[in-house]
Amino acid sequence: MSDMPIFLQIRDDLAEKIRRQHFKGGSRLPAERVLAEQYKVSRMTLRQAIALLVNQGKLIRKPGSGTYVSDQEKEVSENLKGITSFTQIMQSQGKKAQSKFIVFKRHLPSAIEASNLEIDRNEEVITIERVRYGDEEPIAFEITTIPVSLVGNINRSQMAHGLYEYLEDRGFHFGKAVQEISAVVPNEIVCKRLNLTLGQAALFLRQTSYLTDDKPFEFVKTYYAGDRYRFYLEKH
Amino acid sequence: MSDMPIFLQIRDDLAEKIRRQHFKGGSRLPAERVLAEQYKVSRMTLRQAIALLVNQGKLIRKPGSGTYVSDQEKEVSENLKGITSFTQIMQSQGKKAQSKFIVFKRHLPSAIEASNLEIDRNEEVITIERVRYGDEEPIAFEITTIPVSLVGNINRSQMAHGLYEYLEDRGFHFGKAVQEISAVVPNEIVCKRLNLTLGQAALFLRQTSYLTDDKPFEFVKTYYAGDRYRFYLEKH
DNA sequence: TAGTGGTCTAGACCACTAT
DNA sequence: TAGTGGTCTAGACCACTAT
């Protein structure tokens, strides 16, 4: 792996130390100048590594104060178990769930995709874009990205038939999934897919799903038509 | 605006030139070294500006070849990245939580309030509107409605001090809470409370909270500034 | 006041693309 | 072969935080 850029190697090392609690949640990281010296790189290079982890939400920068390991544990556990799946909701409403493939392509990942899938930018991925319908009405526009290394030469129809089944057949087991929900006013392309008027709101969900060994296997972005879909949660 | 970092000024200038088609979709941008010289900055600084536009999906880098203005039509998934990148930074962490009361009133419930609280329309309720801040910045606008029969003559300061504590002190115990999340483009009043520009998106949450005897005790509507708040979920 | 992250410089070498 | 973006260096000064 010594052909990986140094800043990626440092990122991985830092991520590993956070995962192993060598750097604990909420604690302050050693100063950039200190880390740079430890890794024997310039401060700019060290900052590249940190920037990636900041983007992932694993680190938080506080100018003048320091860089902190984010305490994600709290927010997550605080709430929201039992989010309901798309098909479940459609079924509960007596609607027929369907989905239509728009795009199926193999390509090099964007920086964001690579970072969320924890792969190198020259490692190929497959991206599937599809629209999900409830009773013929577009409800969600979904963009899924998966490393080729995981699914190999999966084709369109295998994918349509169910990614999860495909992976389970190959002996992979699913672990956790991390989701983030926000609200956006989507751009023209997304509006078109969802039959939305420009200016309407959409729920935007980003999800990274992991295998039992904590390796990410898919990164999904989904836009839900704001007026046709809602998440139902129950807290106990 | 000369106190804005140079790389942000350059980003804005480049974005403007793309918008005005001075740099046309699909065309190649001048080389980084050329642009750096034009803007009279180092190449690293120029690259910071470009990196932001790449993250937004407005530019695409092709190593060895050049940097291109993305052709929005084609590259759907590429474009979608940009919507997230900014918001990600706004994480609700390490920020000081505050809240400010806007309204505290006793009144007869609306049909929706009565139905959610499972009370009669002539049974009085108390409504509290407040804005919640994270580090001085408005994050959420919350409208809570409670039956008077439950809290009696609770006053503003008792309410501010914590509704839940107040109820627990009186021997009530909390059960489940049911939530529903959707996306909306909020009206003028809500925008004002949250310092939003009209047309921006907000997460809209409706929650009904129950006591252990399954009697509803509060009905809450909350608007979260779409660009300042996200829900994090973890599924297992 | 000492330490921190934010920004910026003026270079350098690399692998890759395009010709 | 010339040009390109990718990476990296070894500094510098700044505003801000924490004490």
Automatic annotation (TrEMBL), chains A, B:
Q: Which Gene3D superfamilies match?
A: Chorismate lyase-like, Winged helix-like DNA-binding domain superfamily/Winged helix DNA-binding domain
User: Transferase among the record's keywords?
Assistant: no
- Transmembrane ranges, per UniProt, are none
PROSITE patterns given in the database record? HTH_GNTR
Q: Which SUPFAM superfamilies match?
A: Chorismate lyase-like, Winged helix' DNA-binding domain
One GO term of the biological process aspect: negative regulation of DNA-templated transcription
Question: Which keywords does this Swiss-Prot/TrEMBL entry list?
Answer: DNA-binding, Transcription, Transcription regulation
Any idea where the HTH gntR-type domain is?
Answer: 4-72
Alphabetical list of InterPro entries matching this protein: Bact_HTH_transcr_reg (IPR050679), Chorismate_lyase_/UTRA_dom_sf (IPR028978), Tscrpt_reg_HTH_GntR (IPR000524), UTRA (IPR011663), WH-like_DNA-bd_sf (IPR036388), WH_DNA-bd_sf (IPR036390)
The lineage's top-level taxon is: Bacteria
For this UniProt entry, the molecular function terms from Gene Ontology, in alphabetical order, are: DNA binding; DNA-binding transcription factor activity
Q: What is this protein called?
A: HTH gntR-type domain-containing protein
Q: Identify the taxonomic lineage of the organism of origin.
A: Bacteria, Bacillati, Bacillota, Bacilli, Lactobacillales
